[in-house]
Automatic annotation (TrEMBL):
Annotated protein name in UniProt: Acetyl-CoA hydrolase/transferase C-terminal domain-containing protein
Gene3D superfamilies, alphabetized: Acetyl-CoA hydrolase/transferase C-terminal domain (3.40.1080.20), Glutaconate Coenzyme A-transferase (3.40.1080.10)
InterPro entries in UniProt: AcetylCoA_hyd_C, AcetylCoA_hyd_C_sf, ActCoA_hydro, NagB/RpiA_transferase-like
Native source organism of the sequence: Halomonas chromatireducens
Span of the signal peptide: none
Source lineage: Bacteria, Pseudomonadati, Pseudomonadota, Gammaproteobacteria, Oceanospirillales
Length: 651
């Protein structure tokens, strides 16, 4: 392949795409961060102006800044969004798809949604493509992709570019697209804000046909801010950290549950005495033998190896904390000898000994601080991270980057840890959608990792789950007797963790599984779950709920959390936050206000309470100013001011 044609102007790049493939365009874009915003927006704008262009965009996770629903949410989010996203071009097709205003000649199909954003969007629900991550490229190529476009990081020599945040599907798509019998074009948009990562992610410029290169139009990366970690999340994270084994393998996902696991894992490494004291106080070994059988309690002397479709920022914190340090190698004989303890790679003269990897990842997206840390990696640290094909990471089949034997050798003592929305007491897990068929997010790679845990000797799948949720002003159990949809079927049940403990389900009878899950459910729902199981003939009629299970209450949990050290040890934001202190205070108050006004009676009570809000203190006046409610005008603003004051003063 020859040198790609370089453009500085996105519209000229679009002209060339149309000249090469015509006006029937099926555009393949990477999941999440790697979308080339200048090129995509220019192509979409062209399709808006020219109805003879037929544009079908196939992708996943089209990221949009939050907007806020209510007036108070918009007041809160407005300055925050401007601060974080004001310099980033908005993904125009995604905003129009969300607002149901795509032109008739444009279709968007995704295999993974930004969680919850499109739950009630009938157009996007109809065009959703349900597929495992490892099958996604096959299923998207079946749509007839003829244009592939991606954001890349240029190297200093001008010879290579890095797929950086998204080699996950693109590494294989570049090859697949060249094999098609029809005209195709591959477009790269360079951006120096994107960290340059080498190894498999570094490809030749000549792998692309067109390059959009203009330093003057480069923009910051879309960031996904840290979400607060609740006390319940921290308990879940602690229990999950008990299941990790030194010299093992780790996969985790994004969100507060993954961050909570990272925090407790770092505590186990840095302050093992405190971690051990919590372990003893929670009676983990006595109550949950699976932790002692499959986990460990000591610091990580050999360390962990990360093998995760998503490289979350937590892996960098684990690297900094001397946990992510177990290196794996591309030679199966060498790796197996290391596993047997026959070779020390640190002193070996094997040619691969200097090429060990502590991390294989498929894609990444995260907070600004994460991107800064990736830019600041030393050469040695950068060389130990291999962003690569998701089909290498997410299953055990042979791949051009390594065969099954090598993958098995690398992934010893694997713990694949993923979160869920719901779990039924027969062990089926719901992570991606509702029983009426609506999709919340997508399957992604969760099924891949759960299935792989059952294939690998010494591996376990761990599903993390909050035991309850608030819905419509009511507390509801996330552990149910049955549900009309599942992401992970019950025959792949393994380990489930809630804030109340660990349920070991693998190889157990249905009765044992039902009881193990009821044992980690909230006590308010245990009796009903047990009665349903008895009615179905799944649990013996004489089984009673032990007194210990009855302690699964928020009050008991709060006491446990304080004994663990409370927020002094388990902060809501252990890895920092993009919110200011004022915004954290307001955010917590507004969240509580939203929960209290979820019902008709709650709204009435809040309105009556707001009438007696009175004058604001100096500190409260500053918070009101952040919402532009310090000088209200009109009835609505006066009411909102009083509601905010009431929320700030509520315990």
């Amino acid at each position: 392949m020859g040198e790609p044609v370089s453009y500085q102007d996105a519209d000229q790049c679009v002209d060339q795409v149309i000249e090469r493939v015509g006006k029937n365009i099926v555009l393949g874009l990477p999941l999440g961060l790697g979308k080339p915003l200048r090129f995509v927006n220019a192509l979409y704008a062209r399709a808006q102006r020219d109805p003879t262009i037929k544009l079908h965009i196939v992708t996943a996770l089209s990221l949009l800044a939050p907007a806020g629903g209510s007036s108070l949410e918009r007041r809160f989010m407005g300055p925050f969004v401007e601060r974080l996203y004001g310099d980033i071009p908005e993904l125009a097709y995604a905003r129009d798809a969300q607002a149901n205003r795509l032109p008739d000649n444009v279709t968007v199909s995704e295999f993974f949604f930004q969680a919850g954003n499109l739950k009630n969007n009938t157009d996007q629900q109809r065009h959703y493509i349900c597929t495992n991550y490892t099958h996604a490229l096959r299923d998207l190529m079946a749509q007839g992709i003829n244009v592939l476009a991606q954001l890349v990081a240029p190297d200093e020599q001008g010879e290579a570019v890095s797929l950086s945040c998204n080699p996950d599907m693109t590494l294989d798509a570049l090859l697949w697209l060249r094999e098609q019998p029809y005209a195709t074009v591959c477009v790269a948009e360079t951006n120096r804000h994107l960290p340059y990562l080498g190894n498999d992610a570094a490809v030749a410029r000549t792998d692309f046909d067109l390059l959009l290169e203009n330093p003057d139009t480069e923009y910051p990366l879309f960031s996904a801010p840290q979400t607060p970690i609740s006390s319940e999340d921290h308990l879940i994270g602690f229990y999950a950290s008990c299941l990790l084994k030194d010299a093992g393998t780790l996969q985790i996902g994004i969100g507060s549950l993954g961050a909570a696991l990272v925090h407790s894992t770092l505590l186990r490494q840095r302050d093992n005495a405190r971690w051990q004291a919590i372990y003893q106080d929670l009676q983990v070994a006595e109550r949950f033998p699976v932790a002692e059988q499959w986990g460990d309690t000591q610091p990580f002397s050999q360390g962990l190896y990360g093998c995760s479709e998503m490289m979350v920022d937590g892996f960098i914190y684990l690297m900094e904390g001397d946990v992510l340090k177990r290196r794996v190698f591309a030679d199966a004989d060498f790796q197996e000898a290391i596993n047997r303890g026959e070779i020390d790679p640190e002193s070996s003269d094997h040619p691969d000994a200097a090429k060990g990897m502590v991390m294989h990842g498929g894609f990444y997206v995260g907070p600004r601080r994460f991107y800064d840390k990736l830019h600041a990696l030393s050469d040695a640290e950068r060389a130990s991270i291999n962003m690569t094909s998701v089909n290498y990471i997410n299953d055990l089949y042979d791949h051009r980057f390594g065969n099954q034997r090598l993958k098995v050798a690398q992934r010893q003592h694997a713990r694949f840890i993923n979160s869920a929305m719901l779990c039924t007491i027969d062990g089926a897990v719901v992570s991606d959608g509702l029983e009426d068929g609506r999709v919340i997010s997508g399957v992604g790679g969760q099924y891949n990792f759960v299935a792989m845990a059952h294939e690998l000797s010494g591996a376990r799948s761990v599903i993390t789950l909050r035991s309850t949720r608030e819905s419509g002003g009511e507390t509801r159990s996330n552990i149910l007797f049955s549900y009309g949809h599942c992401t992970i079927p019950r025959h792949l049940r393994d380990i489930v963790v809630t804030e109340y403990g660990i349920a070991d389900l693998r190889g157990r009878s249905d009765e044992e599984v039902c009881l193990a899950l009821i044992a980690i459910a909230d006590a308010r729902f245990q009796s009903e779950l047990l009665a349903q199981a008895k009615d179905a003939g799944k649990v013996a009629a004489d089984v009673e709920i032990p007194a210990l299970w009855r302690d699964n209450t928020p009050e008991q949990l709060a006491q446990q959390f304080e004994r663990m050290g409370g927020e002094q040890v388990f902060s809501r934001f252990p890895f920092g936050t993009d919110f200011t202190d004022e915004e954290l205070t307001l955010g917590k108050a507004l969240k509580q206000l939203k929960a209290r006004t979820a019902t008709r009676s709650g709204k009435l009570k809040a309105l009556l309470g707001a009438l007696s809000a009175g004058q604001a203190s100096d500190a409260e006046q500053s918070l009101l100013a952040r919402l532009e409610l310090d000088r209200p005008s009109g009835w609505n603003e006066h009411l909102e001011r009083r509601l905010v004051l009431q929320a700030l003063r509520s315990k």
